[in-house]
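User: quick one - fold this with pyridoxal-5'-phosphate bound?
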Amino acid sequence: MSMLPVAPAVADSMASSSFIRKMFEKGLELKKQFGEDAVCDFSLGNPDVPPPARVREELVRLADAAVKPLGLGYCPNAGIPAVREAIAAYLSRQQETALRASDVVMTVGAAGAMVSFFRAVLEPGDEVITPAPYFVEYGSYCGHFGGVLKTVPSLPPTFDPDVDAIARAVTPKTRAIIVNSPNNPTGCIYSPDVMKRVAAIVDRVNEERAAQPGMRPLFLLSDEPYRAFAFDGAKVPPVLPLTKWACVLGSFSKTLSLAGERIGYFAASPAMPGEDMLMAAVTLTNRTLGYVNAPVIGQRLAAALLEETVDLEVYNRRRLLMAKVLSDAGVEFEMPKGAFYFFAKSPVPDDGVFVDELLKERILVVPGKGFGFAGYVRLSCSVDERIIARSADGFKRTMQRFAT
Ligand code: PLP
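Assistant: Sure. Structure tokens for the protein plus pyridoxal-5'-phosphate:
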């Protein structure tokens, strides 16, 4: 008998490996068999809209600096001081809260920010709450440190969080409530009222905990890589003013199409008791997890392009076209106000059956159960309008098969 070469917990995760990954592999297989053009792949969230032209100019400028001594050397673990200053000013405007450079740590994407935060605050057995459906990697991000993800079903059809159920899910071991708005996978933007009510839970719990010796706080963790993706005039309310226990993390993966460059940030409310220690801890864990510091090219690019985004109108056009394709086929969905996903209702309770039927039409989508919410499928609009248009007949044929 051969020995298990990896930790059993990792072997388990590999066995239940992400549905997104599985669809990705299926997509490659189909594209090889039938050709790229014959497959409508809505499974991946890899932003395909080109970065702003200024990214090129900035890279050319950076190329000259790069060949100087230490041009691409290690930088301070929390990030290049001037970049932290620039991000603090940017977040001060966006979050309507005055931030200093010391309130910001540059990270390896939003993912690296979340992992560093969890390493800093979690003890084995601590709990993290998230509304479902949710970005599945959260489970691993907190699970690495013995944290347990507790999911609270959101309320279809809008997929607003069930705030009362979130309040009931809090225990003395709860260390964070994650909010992700605009949301992956639902595209829902949480209203100011919902956000205020979630923040009020955090404040109430922390008041109670402060009166008991040995308790640690509950944080509101706002995961915001899609903040700029808000349509139909929707506003994404700032989070830092809502509670002094708020932390915000984000990235430039989607807003500047720099996902592979791995650049993001972690920020905390300057009013948070013990915030200096939290920021020092995240700086330390960002280092000791092996990230050491966020990529220096990404830091420079992000700081230079804070006022820019990719062409969001491209995503808006895709959103409107996808809505038409789904409506024409009779697929039920709530129009997403944010991000670039649709979370559409499966015509049968088992979303896996719907996914398999769509596959027969060479349309790739991800089952909702992969996001902790069965009965739905996620479609990503990080594909060209031509592909969305081309999928129309396949959706219609699939829905007709379910109707008969
Ligand atoms: N959070 C959510 C909700 C996401 O969808 C993603 C990426 O798809 C991330 C975090 C991680 O993004 P980043 O590339 O910034 O690490």
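One thing worth noting: Residues 45, 109-111, 135, 180, 184, 223, 225, 251, 253, 259, 264 surround pyridoxal-5'-phosphate (CB under 6 Å).
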